[in-house]
Amino acid sequence: AANVIAAAAVAQRRVQVWPMPCCGAVQVEVMHMRHKLDQDTRLVKGLVLDHGSRHPDMPKRVEDAFILTANISLEYEKAEVNAGFFYSSAEQRESLVAAERAYTDERCRRVIELKKQVCGSSGKGFVLINQKGIDPLCLDMLAKEGILALRRAKKRNMERLTLACGGFAINSVEELSPDCLGHAGAVYEHVLGEEKYTFVEDVKHPHSCTILIKGPNDHTIAQIKDAVRDGLRAVKNVIDDKAVVLGAGAFEVAAAAHLRSTVKKQAQGRAKLGVEAFAEALLGFVKVLAENSGYDAQDVLIKLQEEQERGSSVGLDIATGEALDPQVAGIYDNLIVKRQIILSAPVIASQLLLVDEVMRAGINMRGK
């Protein structure tokens, strides 16, 4: 999971975890498939759509493909007004049916003409991803031309397609032109049981990617999904803060030493007790880290404080129980998380003490 998150961060400059509301135009979507092992979790530099083509004769894999993202209706729509048509022969009925289909078929032919214009005899593929419907007759026309068509795509996928493949989404057939097309190196369909997935990979502009989580059961998938989302949020915090703090308890040890050596000497009266209590509370992070790793909290704390007094920034190595340099080991914490903890802890403690004062005052009032 860590390697996948790192690869996603390298592929993007800004990270937006879909559907988590974040700033920025880049999106990293997390999808899961109950398939194979957790080691098969990977980063797809493109999109994974949770549906496939609706015609059996359409190609299952397309290489070097043009991508047309559209929001046009390619299905027969009944008129909104009530009307009756009368015919007296089979020929009249056939001409009536053809007239009803003419408008929809013309739209479909415009798409086919664009495909012939850009592909010609080069052997390149053509993929239509439509947000609205495509009726069976249009699907059959597209399949005969070797076009892979997906209908009723989700809005978020339509937005991400233009980010990943380039081009822009069209809302009418009048906008059809080679400039509106994107590009992908490979588009293929993967069938898993009754579910179909369409992979769009080797995209032109990888400003949107997908983390595909795989696992043999729901429990494994849920664990990986939580780890990936936590990692992506941590990466986003680093990008937004443009700073990190040393982890492994190094910040808490250094902050407690500063409070006792500098701040406490400057405080007056009972404030010294508050500074000492805050410094001791900071060291609680290190004690919990040591206890969870199976080491004696006091022994670990003494080792770290001795190294700190020598002027080193040290944290706890949970594998050995000894002091380590977190910068060398690459262990960092989010600045915004540490800031929030430090700001919230005194407020929460003050509120709890205030509750005690209110309860004590109430008892005294009842006694009188």
Low-confidence stretches: 13-25
Q: Give the amount of beta strand, in percent.
A: 15-25%
Q: Bin the helical content.
A: 40-55%
Indicate the structural class: alpha/beta
Tell me, rounded to a whole number, the average pLDDT: 83
How many E-type strands? 14
End-to-end distance: 64 Å
Order of secondary-structure elements: HEEEEEHEHEHEEEHEHHHEEHEH
Radius of gyration: 31 Å
Q: Count of DSSP helices?
A: 10
Principal-axis shape equals elongated
Strand arrangement within the widest β-sheet reads 4-9-8-5-6-7
Q: In a few lines, what is going on in this structure?
A:
The chain has 368 residues and is α/β, with parallel strands linked by helices. The chain has helices at 2-11, 90-119, 136-144, 155-165, 218-241, 250-266, 271-292, 297-309, 326-329, 335-367, and strands at residues 17-18, 27-33, 42-44, 47-49, 61-70, 125-130, 148-150, 182-192, 195-203, 208-214, 244-246, 315-316, 323-324, 332-334. The termini are far apart.
Characteristic terms for this protein:
368 residues, alpha/beta, 6-stranded mixed β-sheet, 4-stranded mixed β-sheet, 47% helix, 19% strand, elongated
Q: What would your notes on this structure say?
A:
This protein has 368 residues and is of the alpha/beta class. The protein is built from 10 helices and 14 strands. The protein has helices at 2-11, 90-119, 136-144, 155-165, 218-241, 250-266, 271-292, 297-309, 326-329, 335-367, and strands at residues 17-18, 27-33, 42-44, 47-49, 61-70, 125-130, 148-150, 182-192, 195-203, 208-214, 244-246, 315-316, 323-324, 332-334. α1 (2-11) packs across α5 (218-241), α6 packs antiparallel against α7 and α6 packs across α8 (297-309). The chain is elongated and about 105 Å long. The model is unreliable at 13-25 (pLDDT under 50).
